[in-house]
Amino acid sequence: MENENDGYGLSAEKTSKQISPPRIDYLPRIPKNYWPKIGLIGTGGISDFHLKNYKAIGLNVVAFADHTAEKAKAMRDKYYPDAQVYEDYRKIFERDDIEVVDITPHPQDRLPVLREALHAKKHVLSQKPFVLDIQEGMELIKLARKNGVKLAINQNGRWAPHFSYMREAIKSGLIGRPVSVDFSLQWDQTWIKGLAGFEKIHHMVLYDFAIHWFDIASSFMEGQQVKDVYASAVRFDEQLYLPPALASCIINYEQAQVRMAFNAHTTLGEEDVTSIVGTKGTLRSRGPGLNKQPMMEIYTETGEVKVPLEGSWFENGFQGTMGELLCAIEENREPGNGAESNLKSLQLCYAALKSADTGKVVSIVT
């Protein structure tokens, strides 16, 4: 006698037709006619990626500031040899011809520089994490508004090709409302062994690394009401560095969930997979590393398609953050990577750190 439940748990076989790739504008934007003079404050290692990509899209960096003049001169000579170098960053704020500043120092050193830049009525791109205290971030937002300038954050992961495609596809309504987002990352970060700057960060994964993913998740879930966060971090004996290499996080929304799983000690078989399931379809990308994801998988009610992706995180990302700020200034609107939007991302991140430290679910108050 046949059991009517035979096959329980197996999905019915479906034959889906191939559809044409949808039109999704995911590549970084640049201004149409606004090409201001830009000043860069802080010429540490990350500034190399800023400058390389600014040069690639034709931006006009005219001044460098760093308390170590030789570092600033080296970056100046490499990318913009006609630019002026200052040891005192305030000299940049005194220049009326400079309208936009890119401020890259670490958070505790950056806060007073941000305040001075906004008082000087300069448009600002701030390195991430924006602030260590949400209240300080709110005060900076008020100051920017008072002085009529834009304040954006260098959350460059938003313009990684796969993440940018997903965000814009969601905005277009392609897959309806997202009900689940899954980030699964296994990568090798054992290169930090012995580097005090990293090994001293207990939440190296959930904070220094995953801050990008909290920001990306927040951009995917824009308009949905977040409820609470649960996170954990685990260290194992065989690790080559001190901070916990394993971490996870669940972000609950009223009618959706974001799930993150991280293993930063994957010395063999690295993989990065992102899946978004919506009420009308699914988006998925995968790759052996974080910088490039070759293909976007799209599954909709009308059919499915695989779309090749252009560019990489460390190109599109740094072009996208500054490009979006300049477009926002030109179009007199808030930048998509604006400070107010970023505070929502930081709220998720800091709730996750508290949860991992206490072992408790942390409610989000909005």
TrEMBL record:
Keywords of the record, alphabetical order, are: Oxidoreductase
What name has this protein been given in UniProt?
Answer: Gfo/Idh/MocA family protein
Where does the GFO/IDH/MocA-like oxidoreductase domain start and stop, copy by copy? 164-284
The family assignment reads: Belongs to the Gfo/Idh/MocA family.
Question: What SUPFAM superfamilies does the record point to?
Answer: Glyceraldehyde-3-phosphate dehydrogenase-like, C-terminal domain (SSF55347), NAD(P)-binding Rossmann-fold domains (SSF51735)
Any idea where the Gfo/Idh/MocA-like oxidoreductase N-terminal domain is?
37-154
What the entry lists under InterPro entries is as follows: Gfo/Idh/MocA-like_OxRdtase_N (IPR000683), Gfo/Idh/MocA_oxidoreduct (IPR051317), GFO_IDH_MocA-like_dom (IPR055170), NAD(P)-bd_dom_sf (IPR036291)
